[in-house]
Design brief:
two-stranded antiparallel sheet, alpha/beta, 8 strands, 10 helices, 294 residues
Length: 294
Amino acid sequence: MRIDELPRSENIDDRRGVRMRRGGIGIGTLVVLALIGWALGIDPRLLIGGAEVLTGGQQQQPPSYSDTSKTGKAGTNEMKEFVAAVLGSTEVQWTELFAKANSRYQPPTLVMFSGATSSACGFAQSAMGPFYCPKDRQVYLDTAFFEDLQRRFGACNSTKACQFSEAYVIAHEVGHHVQNLLGILPRLQQMQRGLDRADANRLQVMAELQADCFAGVWASRSQQRWKFLDPGDVEAALQTASAIGDDRLQRRSQGYVVPDAFTHGTSQQRVRWFTTGLKTGDITACDTFNAAQL
């Protein structure tokens, strides 16, 4: 993957090298809860929120931060340059797509952090993986997740081969922001109210697969515009989509699969919908909510 010609985004909040201090639940507890949630297929933020209630959580001082970097400025490096390039390319593509619909795209801010940070959706920890918070319209990314793609998930076999896989992850989270702007996420949350966990999860899977498809749309349109892909990049991204499928993650963590606990889709589904967006470059092809087959 070549990023030289990709535009750079300035919508990045780099909190790496910044230490967070907070009363109440300790960071160690937060990480444990996040791991439990991931293993059981439960949104870790629900567990964390419950734990804060049990600890009395709440009338305490808000998080405070101290800069632990030697220079006092975290993150002017290659990783930030890469993230800025990927985010910038998503801004160009989605701005154009929204303009075609006579609408204005409002890009998200991407928060880069190390270990843990705060968000309007609760605490963000590396154990949770990248996520989008609709309440503050920000994408949260601990770049250590990219190391996990190569080392833990075996999603690609080298740092260079992983770059497009990493871009896919960013584009997927931006896809959730697009869903939020289009009103899809608010409607989804309303539909999930009153449903049992299995039915609510099925709707969540549809949203996640649509975000995968939106990431494919970004990749397709960006390739047409900048010719930024190298041989093997697409294959690596498809391998990543497969590696982080619910069935594969559950089998890896607990030795068996619980379909009702799926929240992101199977490996096959994630590959299929990313490929759909990549081949068509058309967001209308990404209607997972009305698809005959996921």
